[in-house]
Specification:
mainly alpha, 69% helix, 10 helices
Length: 259
């Protein structure tokens, strides 16, 4: 069933869909957005400027015990994917096979991979420029994309982390939220705006550059989804962006002082 065919729910269905959205956000990225807002407030009220602070992604849990650190990383990735399974289940209950509904399937693997790679290049290069500009203006923290020690499993775990981030953000923020917002009868500008605003908000812990960059990314991927109704290329693009950031940082940062 196409998203357009499932618009205009009324009565109890509207209440159920609204509750679904609130619960899913409260369990996943909406919760992250609230904590991120609190984080930027805490950072702005420190004595040191924002530009002198550091945000570490993929932090090590037990750096002195690599085997236990690996277990922590894998468990964290697994639990982070539970909201993805939840929204796919909820969509399937009401709209048929969720993978087909939101375009998270293997019907067009070649086209999805190519489109995702092009999207990654189109978003990643300006995004890096925005980050560097925000750093120069003192509006962003120093983002360290990997805090993992150099164990044999570091690169595979960072790739898995990138894929997990992509699935969580694109399936929940795009596939699920846009579908549900459309079913609630929201105007297109509100659908795109709210989804993008939440995406930007849960990146606020990085600073205002992270917020603006992901807000713009949210608008672009939302418009793409409304046009093509496929999440798969967005997952590919997001995975590539994060793999380059995470793995590139882990491999290069120890040898480059300015990073």
């Amino acid at each position: 069933m196409d998203v357009q065919q499932s618009l205009g729910v009324t009565g109890p269905d509207r209440s159920r869909i609204g509750l679904e959205v609130l619960l899913v956000l409260g369990l996943s990225l909406g919760r992250s957005a609230v904590y991120s807002v609190l984080s930027i407030i805490e950072r702005l009220t420190r004595a040191e400027p924002l530009s002198a602070q550091t945000s570490t992604l993929n932090a090590s849990a037990t750096p002195d015990r690599p085997w236990l650190d690996l277990a922590y990383q894998l468990v964290g990735i697994g639990f982070a994917l539970v909201p993805v399974l939840l929204v796919l289940y909820l969509l399937t209950l009401t709209d048929g096979p969720a993978g087909r509904l939101i375009g998270l399937d293997l019907r067009r693997p070649g086209r999805d991979l190519l489109t995702g790679a092009l999207l990654a290049a189109g978003i990643g290069i300006p995004g890096l420029g925005l980050y560097l500009g925000a750093r120069a203006l003192g509006l962003n923290t120093d983002v360290q994309a990997s805090g993992l020690a150099g164990a044999w499993w570091t690169v595979p775990v960072l790739v898995l982390s990138a894929f997990q981030n992509a699935l969580l953000e694109e399936v929940v923020m795009i596939g699920f939220l846009i579908t549900r917002f459309r079913q609630l009868g929201w105007r297109l500008w509100a659908v795109i705006g709210v989804s993008a605003l939440i995406r930007g908000s849960y990146h606020l812990y990085q600073g205002f550059g992270g917020f603006v960059g992901n807000l713009v990314m949210g608008v672009l991927v939302g418009l793409f989804y409304l046009r093509w109704k496929r999440v798969a290329p967005l997952v590919v693009a997001h995975t590539l962006l994060d793999v380059v950031a995470f793995v590139g940082y882990a491999l290069v940062a120890p040898h480059v002082t300015w990073l």
